[in-house]
What does this fold into?
Amino acid sequence: NAGVTQTPKFQVLKTGQSMTLQCAQDMNHEYMSWYRQDPGMGLRLIHYSVGAGITDQGEVPNGYNVSRSTTEDFPLRLLSAAPSQTSVYFCASRRRGLNYGYTFGSGTRLTVV
Amino acid sequence: SQQGEEDPQALSIQEGENATMNCSYKTSINNLQWYRQNSGRGLVHLILIRSNEREKHSGRLRVTLDTSKKSSSLLITASRAADTASYFCATDAVETSGSRLTFGEGTQLTVNP
It folds into this structure.
């Protein structure tokens, strides 16, 4: 199994550009989440989902959109990139239930200039 | 805002010594989890302790949870140079729209050979 796959690994955007960060998992996990990690601030939750068609906002959702059309995929869209969105983005998934840990992808390092 | 606060922010020890990291949180939880992150990599799930458990062991890891004080500790015994990494606690609250995993800011552990 590949686990959680994130693409691309690195990306440089100009301010105002849009792009989609891809996340796919092959473990049939119902729960998926997106986080951003900034120096000194740990990981902050952007959006999360319990299954296809159901998403909700996390702590820092502004400037990002998500949709979940399949169990496997959970793309994160940046609508109009800003320098404040320079960060490392992690996608994670886990199975439904109360007491399971998350499997994380290897991350996408995004720089907005 | 971050759910968890970790203490210390940085810890440097010698190989063979024990390392203890502490985590405090603010709200009710279903469980508390600990993750490891090697530099430039994704997070790896280490151990999960349920809200009705007080202590849990996994290999060289020992986790305690005190829900009355809203705090947890992670003990790594007989540390190795390969344990050098950042360690994060995270609390999990399961909601209708999914699972919200909220992270502390992490402890940077350095194990010197």
